[in-house]
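Narrative summary of target 7.
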Amino acid sequence: MSKNAKIAAGAAAVGLILLIWLPWWAALLIILGVPAAAYLALDPSQRRRLRRTTRKELGR
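Modeled conformation, tokenized:
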């Protein structure tokens, strides 16, 4: 299993646990808010590099 697949599986498991444990709206805020906060915490140069990398990989 690749590293990205392990991360995706872990995120899905955490999301399911949050949906069971918290109200659906709180779980949704956490699931969407954590990646958004991590993206906003990057420097502008890191954001540009991240966008450039994902675009290159989409064209494969």
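The CA atoms of residues 7 and 13 lie 10 Å apart.
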